[in-house]
Amino acid sequence: MMFQTKFSYLVCFLLIMFCISCSKKYYTLQTPPNKEQLITGNQFYKTVADWKWKERDSLAVKEILSGNIPSFLKKFVRINVSCFDSINNKTIYAYYYVAPDYLSIGNDNDWARIPLTPMAAQKIADTFHCFLPTKKMVNDIYKQSIIKLEPVPMYAFRDSSVTMWQHHLIIEGQRKLKPGLIAGIKKDVVLSEAVAKSSKPDREAIYGWHKLDEKPIQPLYTGHINWWVDYSHGIRLVYEKVWVNGKPMLYTDVLSNPILKRLLCDEATCDFYRYSY
To answer: Which of 37, 48, 173, 205 supports an S-S bond with 56, CB 3.0-4.6 Å?
Structure first.
């Protein structure tokens, strides 16, 4: 009987691993077709050079929702994760798809990363059936990234569009056109229970900007008001479905499950699913 039980577990494990190995390595983000000449990344930053955050957010949302995103950014890559179910004494395997870089505007030849408020980010995520990552997910993405770059802090005019553009160019100078999943270059705007539990209203949570030793410069932080955006912030989109043991589930269902939530979240409670806008 014990042999049969162990054999059954082995067969189940092999089937799960087979399903995961046969799953798609990529997911293509569906956006509106580009029917007209859209502004490039360079043109965007020239336009918003002296704009305030609200006007910059508004133009960015308009451009991105119209499909003005470089094509390489639409090819989401798979992140594999697992957790142990101590109740049933088994390992749970899952995967989800993330954008290979931070949210950007432009075409493949002229594009730029655009820091946004969580309100703008959430509106874009909702439209494209995506969500924002948690702190744990940021760590998992970093570990599985192909391109890891040393963070480059900047200290003057941190919230200006000019500094955002300069920081993008610095990252590109480091990247040297190498393709693939990139991490360690921005602080992620993340989902966190700390936002809901904060004694101050209208908070945003940021985390990450990993150094090459895998330690983040930015611990989980909710000290900023939600309209604060600076050059170091980045928006990473994650497709809303998570494949758990080969079965697709909405991320909200995963996060609300007392066992499965550990696939995506390492906080005590994981019930902050989205920002309001």
So the answer is: 48
Q: How many CB atoms lie within 10 A of CB 132?
A: 25
CA–CA distance, 76 with 26 (Å, rounded to integer)? 5
CA atoms within 13 A on the CB side of 266: 10
Token reading at 187: 């602080």
- Return the half-sphere exposure (C-beta side, CA atoms, 13 A cut-off) of residue 143: 9
Rg value, the chain, Cα:
19
The sign of the torsion formed by the CA atoms of 234, 254, 139, 270 equals positive
Question: What pTM did the predictor assign?
Answer: 0.90
pLDDT tens-digit profile, the chain (277 residues) = 544 554 454 545 455 445 445 567 889 999 988 767 789 999 999 999 999 999 999 999 999 999 999 999 999 999 999 999 999 999 999 999 999 999 999 999 999 999 999 999 999 999 999 999 999 999 999 999 999 999 999 999 999 999 999 999 999 999 999 999 999 999 999 999 999 999 999 999 999 999 999 999 999 999 999 999 999 999 999 999 999 999 999 999 999 999 999 999 999 999 999 999 9
Residue 156 has φ and ψ, to the nearest 5°, of -105, 140
Own/partner pairs for 17-22, CB < 8 Å, 24+ apart?
Answer: 17/93, 19/245, 19/246, 20/80, 20/93, 20/95, 20/243, 20/246
